[in-house]
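pls read this protein.

:::
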Amino acid sequence: RGLAVVVVGYPATSLINSRARFCVSASHTIEELERALIHIKAAAQEVGVLYDRYRPNLGDDVAATRRYAELVGAKMESIPLTEWKPEPLLASCHACDGTPPQLAFTHALDDAANAEAACSALELRTTDFLKLAAAAEPRVAAEAALNKYGCGTCGPRGFYGTLDVHLELENKLADFLGTEQAIVYSFGIATISSVVPAFVRKGDVLFVDTGLHFCGAVGTRLSRGSVHHFAHNDMRALERALDVQNRAEKDVPAQKRKRRFVLVEGLYANSGDLCPLPALLRLRDAYGFYIILDDTFGFGSLGPTGRGTPEHFGVAPRDVDVLVGSLEHALGSVGGFCAG
């Protein structure tokens, strides 16, 4: 139905009393919210959780009670009946050889297990650049963490609190990058979209590269600043935009001028291009702005020691004002971070 849903179940709830959360943000329009309510109602009727508190034992209340009884009484291996039919994830493939899906999945697992034999091949199916997700040591560490800390249905620190390992990881990231501090986020894809609106406030000016990945684009939508786009990796276009901003504020006292931010990626997800970071730093020194560098794919994969795009260009990570990275690609884990 096109809705993103967080399902909270056992052990956070009792086994048959799981619930769903829908995250509403300032970027949602009234039309989107109204459409979501229609789909939520339809889905709630399907699973028997739509109750009418003002008319007990009538209409939706009766249907919900009956549906609840069906689901609770069903066998664990049974498939609940539903009127909703999901769209296929992929269009039908006329070139398929007719292999049953489960057998095709088994073949894919075998291919992955034998990938080491094809050492001359370039792996393009994953972003596990260092193969840490398949390595033994991280799996042992993950199992030990589960045994010590347990597992929940979601991981935001706002729900479950800050643990000692969160603080330890932040300190190690800051030490590794040579920055003053670092903060860890629970979900890599949401890191940059959370960082941008945290820094760019109403009255600020944000210059954005047009080659940005959709996660960064979401962050620009959520920010309260004035957004200006410049052509992908075109430092001359950025300089012209900065020059226009300078002329617009030439008579404004320095302390009252708008704060300026430039949002770029280190290793661009959409194109594989590298940001011309040295040229960007020279522009920062000349015009005065803060650099927000999304190094989601560069961190761990670029530079002699994996410190990302800055190290690749011989720049200390601490020289980037706001450095964002992910733990979900080269490091084969989950989450993201912001350092500076």
In short: The chain has a mean pLDDT of 84. The chain is about 35% helix and 10% strand. The first strand starts at residue 6 and ends at 8.
